[in-house]
């Protein structure tokens, strides 16, 4: 927080506390005893007496003001002031996570020593893996792991970088970075249309035969290096299978053309620095189990 906003919060907080205290004691200085005076307000025949607060109520308000001042001295609440004990939400969270890690470490270490194939069907592992997945992966891949536009489905058997336990664990640990280069300026708009027609044809969809024939030639010249001569993809390069009807960025003619023309780029962040090895092992087992 900048110094300006820190000062802004401090000033507003102090003004609020002082103002509330002034209102409270200002009204307390009025007549101490009960009277028959009214404020002049009448609602449904009910008049409002103009009497001070009962003593117990007044002192309760005083206590809350004193408590709030003490709280703002001990805990952060006044701009950038950290409080006497230096408490933070992040620190509190880290302590709780450390306690939980220590509590469950022995159990996770036991699973870490076992193969992913073996523990992927274990109900306890699946339960832990689902929770860890929800906290770390669902933001992109969805709560059901079925992905969305630009984010792969992890619950089927189609894998960009391989679906073996080792491949999945590597993807989580080190991350992945895919890149489909833009070919629009190389093959021209006609080339884009022809390759689109060819890709649609190998997926059993209607396309102009002339465009398909021309597109196959363009594909064999520019695309086989990544996607293979039969367009079945290459997991080593993260090049998707183009003939199985599964599309990361959409399978309409327009979406396929855009992928060819402008290219695509996707990043799976590495989690080695945010998740321990045992947690990655359990998440990998959970993901592997989804496709089995």
Draw up the topology in text.
Elements: H1 3-28, E1 38-43, E2 46-49, H2 55-74, H3 89-112, H4 116-119, H5 123-136, H6 138-141, H7 165-174, E3 176-180, H8 184-202, H9 209-222, H10 224-227, H11 253-262, E4 264-268, H12 277-290
Antiparallel strand pairs: 1-2, 3-4
Helix pairs in contact: 1-2, 3-12, 5-12, 7-12, 8-9, 8-11
Please characterize this protein's 3D structure.
There is one protein chain. This protein is mostly helical and 292 residues long. It has 3 domains: 3-87, no CATH class; 90-175 and 270-290, Cytochrome c-like domain (Cytochrome Bc1 Complex, Chain D, domain 2, Orthogonal Bundle); 179-268, Orthogonal Bundle (Cytochrome Bc1 Complex, Chain D, domain 2). Helices cover 56% and strands 7% of the residues. It is built from 12 helices and 4 strands. It has a two-stranded antiparallel ribbon with strand order 1-2. Strands 3-4 form a two-stranded antiparallel ribbon. A hairpin with a 2-residue loop joins strand 1 (38-43) and strand 2 (46-49). Helix 1 (3-28) packs antiparallel against helix 2 and helix 8 packs across helix 9 (209-222). It is elongated and about 100 Å long. The mean pLDDT is 92.
């Amino acid at each position: 927080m900048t110094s300006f906003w820190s000062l802004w919060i401090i000033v507003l907080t102090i003004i609020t506390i002082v103002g509330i205290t002034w209102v409270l004691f200002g009204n307390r200085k009025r007549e101490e005893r009960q009277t028959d005076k009214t404020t002049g307000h009448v609602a449904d025949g009910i008049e409002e007496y103009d009497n001070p607060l009962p003593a117990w109520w007044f002192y309760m308000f005083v206590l809350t003001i004193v408590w709030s001042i003490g709280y703002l001295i001990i805990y952060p609440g006044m701009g950038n002031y950290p409080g006497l004990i230096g408490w933070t939400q992040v620190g509190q969270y880290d302590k709780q996570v450390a306690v939980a890690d220590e509590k469950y470490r022995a159990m996770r270490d036991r699973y870490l020593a076992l193969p992913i194939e073996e523990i992927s069907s274990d109900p306890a592992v699946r339960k832990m893996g689902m929770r860890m997945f929800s906290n770390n992966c669902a933001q992109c891949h969805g709560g059901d792991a079925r992905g969305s536009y630009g984010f792969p489905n992890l619950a089927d058997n189609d894998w960009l970088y391989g679906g073996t336990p080792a491949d999945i664990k590597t993807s989580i640990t080190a991350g992945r970075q895919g890149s489909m280069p833009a070919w629009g300026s190389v093959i021209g708009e006609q080339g884009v249309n022809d390759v689109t027609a060819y890709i649609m044809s190998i997926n059993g969809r209607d396309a102009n035969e002339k465009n398909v024939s021309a597109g196959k030639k363009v594909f064999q010249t520019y695309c086989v290096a990544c996607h293979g001569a039969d367009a079945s993809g290459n997991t080593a390069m993260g090049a998707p299978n183009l003939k199985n009807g599964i599309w990361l960025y959409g399978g309409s003619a327009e979406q396929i053309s855009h992928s060819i023309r402008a290219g695509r780029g996707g990043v799976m962040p590495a989690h080695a620095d945010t998740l321990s090895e045992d947690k990655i092992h359990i998440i990998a087992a959970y993901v592997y189990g989804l496709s089995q």
